[in-house]
Amino acid sequence: MSNTATEGTPLAANPLTRAVLEIDEYASGLGWDRPARLFALVDTAQLRTEEPALADQLGLGEESATGGLTPIEQDELPAGTALDEFLATIAWPEVIAGCALTVERLMLPPSAETAIPEDLDEAALASWVAEHPERQEVRMTVGVLRDGARESAVRLRAKDSATEVLTGADLVPGLADALTATFEA
């Protein structure tokens, strides 16, 4: 992946939004029903200066040497480990400007959330949501920077198009908080 927008990806105003949309487009190209993917976000100019061979391998030419963030996919997340438990084990080195995660989930509209039965454990709740007729499959891509900036992109499986991706800083606040915590000592 490079830090330039891919065809079909909307242009974004800031580097974090561009990186999140780039990751969303990358994940879209892999298809649905995929495991969560974690990315380190590095300053493209710094990467070009300090690691020119890696920058060349990633296809980051001289034109990408100023501004922007480059997403670098990390190893696959360990199977069988809850996402929140896994994120709690991460500590990024100083060279990493931010991180992002893309994950698929089932989501209910707000009107259906009031009907959730009380006293369900996590497995029973997941089963209840999976069987609900109004459920939507979504892919959420959330990115955060060390300075606290955050951005999210949400893509519904039913509207799987780059022009239908919803973006915003606070679309997935719990996941953004968990990613931000990976930068706290």
Describe this structure in words.
By secondary structure, the chain is α+β, with helices and mostly antiparallel strands. It has one domain. Helices cover 30% and strands 23% of the residues. It is built from seven helices and six strands, in the order αβααβαβααβββα. It has a six-stranded antiparallel beta sheet with strand order 2-1-3-4-5-6. A hairpin with a 4-residue loop joins strand 4 and strand 5 (150-156). The two termini are 29 Å apart.
Could you give the topology of this structure?
Elements: H1 15-30, E1 37-43, H2 44-50, H3 52-57, E2 69-73, H4 83-87, E3 98-107, H5 110-113, H6 122-131, E4 136-145, E5 150-156, E6 166-168, H7 173-180
In short:
It contains seven helices and six strands. The protein starts with 14 loop residues before the first helix and ends in a 5-residue tail after the last helix.
State mean pLDDT (0 to 100 scale). 84
Major beta sheet summary: 6 strands, antiparallel
Low-confidence stretches: 1-10
Strand order of the largest sheet: 2-1-3-4-5-6
Number of domains: 1
Output the helix-strand order: HEHHEHEHHEEEH
Number of helices: 7
Q: Work out the helicity level.
A: 25-40%
How many whole angstroms does the radius of gyration measure? 17 Å
Secondary structural class: alpha+beta
Strand content: 15-25%
Global outline = globular
Number of strands: 6
Distance between the termini: 29 Å
Keywords:
six-stranded antiparallel β-sheet, 185 residues, disordered N terminus, alpha+beta
